[in-house]
Structures are given as C-alpha cells and as structure tokens.
Amino acid sequence: MMLEQLKEILSNKLKVSPEAITPEATKDDIELDSLAVVELSLLLKSELDIDVSDDDLLEAETVADMVELMETRSAKV
C-alpha cells in the first residue's frame, strides 16, 4: 500500500517513470537527486501527513527502504 502511494507521488509529482519504481530501485536508478528528495519529504508530509525528513530519505538506499521509513513514521501517529 505504501509502495503504491510512494509510486504515485514519485511518478505524478516528481516525474519518475513508474516502471522504474521497484522496491529494489535505488535513488540513482530513479534519478532522485537531493533536491527531489527534499521535495519528496515535503510531499509525503502534505499528501500523506507522514513526517520523514529529507536526511532520512537520503539515507534510504532503495525504494523499499523509503517505504519502510514511511510505514514506521505513519505508525507513530
């Protein structure tokens, strides 16, 4: 579920190719630079009310790691 939400934000808002967004894809694979990561952090907060800092997202190696962060943060609320 979170993967789908992340995929939607990445493809619709950050123009990442949906086919490229797989759990094992790295930030490089989906061409997510640090600026895009900051934007993603803001979008997660505004769209899903999930508070994940850009620093945390930058540490996430893969899309699956980002999803895990999202799940952890959303569980805290």
- Put simply, the count of helices is 4
Helix proportion: 55-70%
Give the biggest beta sheet: none
| Quaternary organisation of the protein chains | single chain
Taken as a percent bin, the fraction of beta residues is: under 5%
Intertermini distance: 17 Å
Please tag this protein with its features.
77 residues; mainly alpha; 4 helices; 0% strand
Write the layout of secondary structure elements.
Elements: H1 2-12, H2 34-48, H3 54-59, H4 63-76
Helix pairs in contact: 1-2
Briefly, what is this?
60% of the residues lie in helices and 0% in strands. It is mainly alpha-helical.
Report what the structure shows.
60% of the residues lie in helices and 0% in strands. The chain contains 4 helices and no strands. The protein has helices at 2-12, 34-48, 54-59, 63-76. It is globular, with a radius of gyration of 11 Å.
